[in-house]
C-alpha cells in the first residue's frame, strides 16, 4: 500500500488531480486520508491479496509502469520530454531522473523475487509486468 500511497498522496493535495480523485474515486481519496494515520490499528494480517489490491496492481501495470518506461527510454535517448497513451488518451511531460530511478528500483526488487512470486504478480499486474524485467 505504501508504494501507491506515496504517489497518490501527492495527487490528493494538488488541486487539479485532487478534484478528479474526489469526483471519480471517492473511496480511494478517503483511503489516502485513512492511510495517512494508521495508528491504533491492530489485528492479524489478512490472508491472500484483496481484490482491490489486485485491481490497483492492474492499474499500475496498465498506466504507471508504461509511464515509467517511456520516461526512462526518453532519458536514455537524451530527450527532454516523452509522450505515451494512457487509457486511450495522449500524455506528455518532461523527463525526470527520479522516475527512472523508481523503475530501476522496481526492476531490482522484481529480480529478487522467486519465479513463482513473479508469476503470481504477473497474473495480477498484466502485460505491464514485462516492463519490470531488466532490459525490457
From TrEMBL:
<dbReference type="GO" id="GO:0016740">
    <property type="term" value="F:transferase activity"/>
</dbReference>
<keyword id="KW-0808">Transferase</keyword>
<protein>
    <submittedName>
        <fullName>Glutathione S-transferase family protein</fullName>
    </submittedName>
</protein>
